[in-house]
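Newbie here. two chains, one complex. Structure please?
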Amino acid sequence: MVYTKRTPWTLIMGVIMVAYAYLVQSGALAAVIKYLGTGRHAGEMLTLGYTFGGIAILIGLWQLIAKTAEGHVDYYLSTIGGVMFIMLVAFIVKWGLDPQMAQWGRAAQPTLGFNFASVMNLNYVVMGIIAGIVIVNVFKVPDWAENGVRLSRLGLKTGVILLGALYSFAELQQLGKLSVVLIGIFVLGSVGVVLWWGARRNLPNSMTGVLSAGVGVCGVSAAVAAAPVVQAKSTEIAYTIGTILLFGVICMFAFPIIGKALGMGYITFGAWAGTGILNSAQVAGAALAFQPTGIETLKVAEIFNITRVLFLPIIVIWLAIWYVKREVGAQKVNVGQVLVSKFPLFVLGFILMFLLSSTGIFAPARHYQGSYFDNSDKVMIKKDRSGKEVNNYLKDPDLELLKKDAAKITRDDQKAALQRLIGNKKLMSIEDDDTLRGVVNAKLMSKEGNAVLVKAHRAVRHTAAKIAMFRDLIAWFFTFGLVGLGMQITMASIKQAGGQPLVIGSFVGVIKAVGSLIVVMLLVHETI
Amino acid sequence: MSEEKFDRGSALTIFGTDRHEDLVALVLALVIALLVYLYV
């Protein structure tokens, strides 16, 4: 079978990509980029536009001119058309739809009272899948692109492996034993309940498996990671992602209201949100809604949340064994054999990247998603791009402003942190930085005083360039994978899946939210 | 997209087995990590 189709489309897409990059470079699209606020993506627009465009032009020409015979060259090179097709859609999603939606969300905020784009999670994840679904159902995937669309799962798997680089072991050491036990119980418990219930309702094993990982662990990435182990179909992955996001939207509104009604403290609420809400972005949203004037809640919620991600390998092993048992109908399963034959190597890759990141080769070992604290002289006094020395220590007028506003601070820990800042002209610890960020968020001081605190914060907080690069790459691999995934979801397959997964997912989500509320109220106190 | 359209791989992947696909993803990710480590 010869896979290469004689089509001009690969060449045409290459020309479009190169032309786009050229227009960005020449400044012809400056007004559009300014309007969408995508200036920080200008670099990747050039790199990706020229690189993918160049490859598409070369392969496109080869497809038009060369005579292709059956074999590896034909098979693998024929995927390029589909890859470029997905990338072109991904460009539109990432550089067009995503920033446009964010802008509409901000514009409608004064009228609606909330940012609908952020609340509904209308980012590249959702829009990538929707774009793919629209293409396959309204326009149909062209036959020359079909082979390449089958590479979307490879993109998702690569994204999951790279995801490991964002986390480091040092951050987890902040956790108490209680929180690990708490998270473990709820992750494993939710997975167990979904598996049991799915079996009772006669859902396909693949659907139940992927839903259990999504509901139990951490939403989108867990669903993606578990999917191959249970042979899940594209529709089932999309259903799981839809259920998690929809349920998360409700949680984002409900959790802060319930938390306030019950008089929960910052740490208790953070622990509840980090355990009970399914999707990471919505965990952060609920924590900020509960405590807009500080970051104590957000920090606890995020630590609980990332711990869930690290349960992923355990869940994958469980699902691998469960799936083999269910499909084969075997009473006794050789666990070792299943692990050797079924355990996905890409989940091991995730662990490997996590371990590499923990050694500090991508960022100082104590980083959290690439952000780290450093107040050494090396970073406080440094040279800018023009070679001019920049001194980041606070100056006398800054200190005068802080001294003047110091009386407005009433909390002892905040007072002490402020005194240390004034005495040393720089923030002395990560804890002081967190404490004073709470002062900034609460707007306790004058506008000028707040500006000095922000300046002091920026002087000691740094973003590791390598981790920032990983984050961008992960977003691209996920966009690529999700657009391709959407292209495999037809209306018929959605109807076939029915509404059962949504019901089961939401119900287990509610059980998890209520159960974790009770346990957190009983066990977690304002110090963990 | 039906499976019969392809005589290699499956409807979801161009690779013969999941293990093969995992291995390619792992190699790809490690190469990317190496490039990020060296050049960023």
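Moderator note: Chain A has a mean pLDDT of 86. The two ends of chain A are 62 Å apart (CA to CA). Thread marked as resolved.
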